[in-house]
Every structure is written in C-alpha cells, then in structure tokens.
Design a protein that fits this description.
mainly alpha, two-stranded antiparallel ribbon, 8 helices
C-alpha cells in the first residue's frame, strides 16, 4: 500500500530468510496475464508467479511458495480502489475512480499507455522494470477525465436510460466497439486470484 511517510515494501520473509521482491508494475501485470492463461495449471501458475516476484533457485517448499505468492497477491490487491458492491470511490477532484469491472489492463493497454503520456509524460514502456506497482496504481487512478482511457471507461459505464434517436444509437455503437466480455475485466482477474488459492487450499487438505 502506498504511503507518503513509509518506504515501499520490497522484501518478504519466507521461513528464516528474507527475499527481495520485484514489484514493478509490468511484473504485476504479468501475474494477471498468467492468471488468465487457461492452458497453465494452477500449481504451475504459483510456481511461475513465485519466480516472477522472488526469483528462481530459492530453496523453499511448495507450501512456502503458495504462502509467499498469496501474501504478495494480498498486498497487490490491497492497492485496488473501489468495490463492485459499494459506492464508487472518487479521486481528489471528486471524479469516480475507474471500477475494475469496466476495464482491462490487457485489453486497454494502448489507451492506458497514451493516457499516461498525455497526463504525466510518462512512457510506460521505458518504465518497465522500474516503476513500482503502487506508484503506477496511484497515477492510474488519478488519470484525468480528458484522457483516452477515462473516456473509454465513461462510455462503458454510461447508462442508455433517457437517451433516444442519434444520441442513443451513437452510445450503443461506442459501447459495442469498446465492449469487454466479463472474462476480460480486471474484476474477473481479481476473482480468479482468490479462486486459485482456494483451490490449492482444498487440494492441500486432500493430499
């Protein structure tokens, strides 16, 4: 979680050892892409996620890997604003923060990239491996309404109630153009993360 008074967490304790973490924003997004890959077994996903965040060659047990990735995932999700079941949170300008069910880091990559360039003059490609996830999330949630990404999210969120004629037709066309399937949304990936750890917990009890 981003704090203005404390340094960002950059390590995790596993057993008696402490390991440095790679929590660059692109590494976290690789974890989300890994979650979405149905061709990879959940156990293998945990192993690969551990290698992403901690590294290879560490002498720890599979159970320790699961606990480590679960702890890292909890930390990552703790930075996520809003809740689909509650009123949407707002940024410092009073504008609603984009809700996870209305966007996808993968599908909206170009819009997010161009929006960071427009608002912050930050090239996210150049920042790979450098910009921390917590900083990325703070900047992401602060994107202005004029950016391409926020305009796309606004189109997806807008209700057709009360619209008619050309205005209604234009909105429907735009929503279809920018449509996300439920499986594509960030909300779905966050749910998948919890499902993976629940499945592994059940499997561990069976073993």
């Amino acid at each position: 979680m981003l704090s203005l008074t404390k340094p960002l967490e950059d390590s995790i304790k596993i057993g008696d050892a402490e390991w440095t973490l790679d929590l660059s924003f692109d590494n976290v997004l690789r974890w989300y892409e890994l979650l979405d890959d149905e061709s990879i077994d959940d156990v293998v996903k945990i192993q690969q996620a551990f290698n992403l965040f901690v590294g290879v060659g560490t002498d720890i047990t599979p159970d320790q890997q699961v606990k480590a990735v679960s702890q890292i995932s909890d930390y990552i999700q703790a930075t996520v604003y809003g809740d689909a079941n509650n009123e949407p949170e707002t940024d410092l300008n009073g504008d609603p923060v984009p809700q996870e069910r209305f966007f996808s880091y993968q599908k909206d990559a170009e819009a997010i990239y161009s929006s960071f360039m427009a608002d912050y003059k930050i090239d996210l490609i150049d920042e790979q491996g450098k910009l921390r996830w917590e900083k990325f999330r703070a900047l992401f949630n602060g994107l202005s309404e004029s950016t391409q990404f926020r305009r796309i999210v606004a189109i997806r969120q807008r209700s057709t109630t009360g619209l008619e004629g050309e205005e209604l037709s234009d909105l429907i066309d735009a929503q279809e153009f920018y449509r996300l399937d439920d499986d594509d949304t960030q909300s779905n990936l966050d749910s998948q993360m919890g499902a993976v750890f629940s499945m592994l917990a059940v499997k561990a009890k069976e073993d």
